[in-house]
Design a protein that fits this description.
mainly alpha, 5 helices
């Protein structure tokens, strides 16, 4: 019962409060990047608290998520031209 209560409080209530707070203060692009890291943090917590076994699939998946975040951040930082927004 204690695990269910802990999960209800931490994974639901606290997470939504922090998410709402961050969404009000960050740009939409930053919020998207932050939310994209959720699977990485889920794996880290699973390894830390639930003794999840780290496999190459977990590492590869995490690397893909981090790579996507880096690409998104790099693309968000460059100036856009009108031609980038419309297919020719």
């Amino acid at each position: 019962m204690g695990a269910v209560l802990l999960t209800a409080v931490l994974a639901t209530a606290v997470a939504y409060v922090v998410q709402t707070w961050a969404q009000r203060r960050l740009s939409p692009a930053r919020v998207g990047v932050l939310l994209a890291t959720e699977p990485v943090f889920a794996v880290l917590v699973a390894v830390w608290l639930a003794d999840e076994i780290v496999t190459w699939q977990l590492v590869a998946g995490g690397a893909l998520v981090v790579a996507a975040i880096v690409v998104t951040e790099l693309a968000a930082g460059r100036p856009r031209e009108v031609g980038d927004l419309v297919d020719a």
